[in-house]
Specification:
The structure is a homodimer of 656-residue chains. By secondary structure, chain A is of the alpha+beta class. The first copy, chain A, contains 16 helices and 23 strands. In chain A, 34% of the residues lie in helices and 17% in strands. In chain A, helix 4 packs antiparallel against helix 5, helix 8 runs antiparallel to helix 9 and helix 12 runs parallel beside helix 14.
């Protein structure tokens, strides 16, 4: 049995975290295995071609040339952004997690080739970012927009992954030299006493500390976390940016310890909080822990979409106000969903509480997964919960189509690294035993207790756990009961155990024997969900959910191509379930009843006195909802997650 | 009597328009007179200081120097945008309309000084834009973002205003030389065969034709209208812009004649349509007329806020999809409201239909006027219909505060020119007589019929019209009955006349005698308004209106500083009216009844199963609504136009 967890987060023995990622976590079948297969065989396999076509690898080769290295006659930098290197680092990290899971000689050779390029591009003094090496300007002078520490963070994470996957120190040495360079440059009284406009290096430095035991890395992470929020990044207006988003954009308006709400650029905020949570775990700092718990609650309660997505605003890719959650103009960047999962996972380890994995589940199956096309080679950057019929005709509309790659290609390799490392997020061990956070067919274990999980989750709520290896003496096996589930039962060797979940966990504690079988049954009838009264954007609407999945109506599935914007949902009609193995890679659809609205009178003023001219929807028609994660994989058309309720009487549609 | 209308739009004798701006239009008292007084005494008077402080005037002085003129050693250009000159031109236009209305020696001297600066800055060949003259690059090479024709258009409009106000040709000669330069540069087979990224010159060239009778200007306007929409502005990504908004941004995706919906940057779209409407009026082109009618209907029916504001998206300042009208994230730029008024006015003249002036009234009193602070020296660029309590704490939030001036200062001088020329939009003459489109105390007339209007509009719906001067024979006097008004009466010399409005007009036709009095009474009880079922953002809500005014709740007016986001409106409770002469410059407030929502449970997931945990609002509390145009003139706090309705049962708040 593999006893060293090979995933991205590995708290030290000194960390205060009650939970640690399970030493053994293998996903071997079912829903996520198929998505991980596509990730490995298509997305990861095609990554080097994409990085070659976009010029990222050429940048590394150019930086390795002598005139690139000393900056005298720089070669041409390819790409529009200072952070092009990070796409390479993220692909590399993803490929390493894949190798850690499933050895593959071809991929291993690709990895070593890219590692070689990176090593060759590094400057003698340890500096590494091809944008500045290839004539982009003086290093460490544009901390706001330069993304140098951001790229460094991704390089460090790739190096940690490479080390954990292969045992090699080859890339870790590059990371170590880069980190040494950072130690020489950053800090009070040093050359640079400020932070990077884009957090990321914080969590990377903590993981480098966890890997090398070099405490300087932890101290530098703490410096970056504490330095931020004091306005040291003085202006948001910089090259290529004709407006100033204000210091909140990069969380430089308030120190993390004092902040009461998540704010600014969503990915930046959440990468920062992931780093702060790592730091709280390693230092036991109670003020920092209180801050990350407070900010997570603010995010989950007031700034998270039903899909788990975050970051409402197109404008500066930002969290908006509390309860500002528009469905149509949701920005909901794929990377922000990933960042939310990173943050929540660190909170789950730090606190042992199930609610963090509740949100991870919701985000994984919905807000995150929608970003990845079923084909493994097309992507969404923006993940709205509502697309109107004609949006896709707008050439400038980012949320219209899946795209093979992006000019700003942060999302695709980020999806790759999350899917490649996904088993890491499934199970933990604590002092009392093994915790299953997510359900996927496979093998999970640690501290002597190993179990085999078989399930058809998320299509079916039955999870069968068979004990394969046992420790001496009694242990707990804890299974998370998702917050969406109101009816669950647990049976041990065929005997139902009494008692409701405690804080989200159902536990069996005993001296297990191999062959013991624990069966969890989560009832997952389709359901209608509404939002609280302060969520203005979806007032008077309901969404269809089943199990962990949020559903949506796509125009193509409706009778006669009925536009989902032209109907109201009949909340009294039953919801039905249908298994469709040949639709969208195999899904369970939900049937509902809609009532078409009368067409608008062309050219008519769209406002009217209350109580006059209430819309009268027509006779019921059968609607078909598909899982939201699978939307936009067929022909373009309207899509809605939130459906106006017929009969609400005011503004939606009346039930007469 | 002044017989030459001095306003901005003056169709020629050959135009097909059934209506022409009234030759005499003076606003002498009441609501708009006070706003125009502040405009003249504060906004216009302080304009030169602002333009000096922002560097706009210095740019003109620098361009007048020899080394500025030949470009050899350019002086430093002040300001962040290529179109800084247009702020000067717009102030100048505004000042000229003010002078046309009310002679003022000091203002006249300021005007002549600025005219002198502009004349001196013009290049020998007629070219004029200081950004390119002061080292910004080669003229006419950056049509997309350069704004050279946009600035030319504003210069031409200022010159027309100067000529109409003063009779002088001094600035008109500058405009003529600039136009000659344009004729030499633009067109098929000439140096530049494309359009400006920002429409504006089209309507200006038509007005220059109307002023000079030089048909080349009309032809060039037609060239610009017809050339657009063929993708000749090939890329939206240019200096300072790291994303490409697509050709829709500047309406280069579809020719005007073929377009079926307003799209892209709202101000650009509407300036273009104003020019197209002018062109349709002067040429009688039926295809163009059909296009502008179709596009106006699309705007009014699917893309206009209750306040008349347009342009929903912060992202690229764009019209969004049909029915995409978020209250909180409304961009609703002040300039877009002005552009909508410009467009609607030309449509009113072109068609004679009252609905265009209905929308002008709504926009003037709400979406436009909110942009101008009551003090005449602070402004809103963005005009949301909902501000949450904490938004103003965000330094990067544009919609939080009124601002003395902007880095991109397009809105303030645009407000100034509309207020200065406002009497122009009040009345028209047609073949059959005089039409009153808007109601303000003053004197209006043309073709021999002159009337004096006395009214306390918009606070009171009584409009008394006394005939002062009469022509020989019978004439019509037509008074617009706004679409919001469901109960109106017209009396002639004390006798009520029967009959409902026809197509929005109530008419008296007779041989008038001096002293004849026509009294219009428009009932204006406060009312609740709801949006159609496709306007997702305000489903389940109502807005308070009275007469032409949209109302809002500001936090400061509510009992105990109750946050408007924490209540639902009781639609069954009566609305009351209160005259408050000392509040916000004198307003009529509307009283309503709200029911406070229970506070959210901190940290709780904000979604729940339908039918569970419906919010139960508390006992009724008295609310005070103020006119929307006056919001954000006191301490910061939450504001709402659209209020959730208690008792709608789903998502808003239940009436138990």
């Amino acid at each position: 049995m593999n006893t060293a967890p090979s995933g991205p987060v590995r708290p030290t023995a000194g960390a205060v975290s009650p939970l640690r990622p399970a030493a053994l976590a293998r996903v071997e079948g079912g829903f996520w295995a198929e998505r991980r297969r596509v990730n490995a065989e298509v997305s990861l396999a095609e990554g080097p071609e994409r990085l070659e076509a976009a010029g990222n690898l050429a940048n590394l080769r150019a930086a390795a040339l002598p005139n690139g290295r000393d900056g005298a006659e720089p070669a041409h930098f390819a790409g529009d952004f200072q952070f092009q290197d990070s796409d390479v680092h993220k692909w590399l990290e993803a490929a390493c997690w894949q190798l850690a899971d499933s050895p593959d000689g071809e991929l291993a050779a690709e990895v070593e080739a890219v590692v070689g390029l990176i090593a060759a591009a590094q400057r003698e003094d340890g500096y590494l970012q091809t944008y500045y090496q290839l004539g982009g300007g003086e290093p460490w002078t544009e901390l706001g927009w330069g993304h140098e520490l951001y790229c460094a963070g991704h390089l460090i994470q790739a190096a940690v992954a490479h080390h954990r996957a292969t045992g090699s120190d080859r890339l870790l040495r590059v990371a170590g030299r880069l980190a040494d360079h950072l130690h020489s440059v950053f800090g009070p009284g040093r050359q640079v006493d400020t932070v990077c406009g884009h957090p990321e290096v914080e969590t990377a430095l903590v993981e480098l500390y966890r890997t090398t035991s070099d405490r300087r890395h932890l101290d530098l992470a703490r410096y970056f976390v504490d330095r931020r929020g004091h306005g040291s990044l003085s202006s948001g207006a910089d090259r290529g940016h004709d407006r100033d988003p204000g210091p909140e954009y990069w969380q430089d308006h308030t120190p993390v310890r004092e902040a009461t709400e998540v704010a600014g650029h969503a990915v930046r905020q959440l990468y920062l909080l992931a780093g702060a949570a790592d730091l709280a775990a390693e230092t036991g700092d109670p003020g920092l822990r209180a801050a990350v718990e407070r900010l997570w609650r603010d995010m989950a309660a007031t700034k998270t979409y039903l899909t788990g997505a975050v970051g409402s605003r197109h404008d500066w890719e930002a969290f908006g106000d509390a309860h500002e959650l528009p469905a149509d103009r949701a920005y909901a960047e794929t990377c922000a969903a990933i960042a939310s999962i990173h943050f929540s996972w660190r909170m789950a380890l730090l606190t042992g509480e199930a609610r963090y994995s509740d949100l991870i589940e919701r985000t994984l199956f919905n807000g995150f997964l929608a970003g990845a096309g079923l084909d493994g080679r097309t992507w969404l950057y923006v993940n709205p919960l509502h697309r109107r019929a004609r949006s896709h005709e707008r050439p400038g509309d980012q949320s219209a189509h899946r795209t093979p790659w992006f000019r700003c290609a942060c999302c695709p390799p980020n999806v790759m690294r999350l899917l490649a490392s996904l088993p890491h997020y499934m199970a933990t061990t604590g002092a009392d035993g093994l915790y299953l956070h997510q359900y996927a067919t496979g093998v999970y274990g640690g501290d002597g207790l190993t179990v085999r999980v078989v399930t058809d989750y998320p299509w079916d709520g039955t999870v069968t756990v068979t004990v394969e290896e046992t420790p001496a003496g009694p242990k707990s096996l804890a299974l998370r009961v998702p917050a969406w589930c109101t009816r669950s039962t647990l049976a041990l060797n065929g005997t139902v155990l009494d008692g409701p979940p405690e804080s989200g966990w159902l536990r069996v504690t005993r001296a297990f024997a191999p062959g013991d079988t624990v069966r969890l049954a989560l009832a997952m009838p389709p359901r209608l969900t509404v939002a609280g009264p302060r969520v203005d954007a979806v007032r008077g609407c309901a969404a269809i959910e089943r199990g962990p999945l949020v559903y949506c109506l796509e125009q193509t599935d409706q009778p006669g191509g009925l536009d989902p914007d032209d109907l109201a949902l009949d909340p009294a009609a039953p919801l039905t379930v249908d298994s469709r193995p040949h639709l969208l890679g195999g899904v369970v659809t939900v049937g509902a009843t809609g009532r078409p609205l009368t067409p608008d009178e062309p050219g008519a003023w769209p406002y009217r006195p209350l109580g006059t001219g209430e819309p009268r929807p027509g006779a019921g028609v059968g609607l078909t909802a598909v899982p939201y994660y699978a939307w936009a994989n067929r022909e373009a058309g309207a899509m809605r997650v939130w459906l106006p309720l017929a009969g609400s009487g005011t503004g939606a549609a009346d039930d007469q």
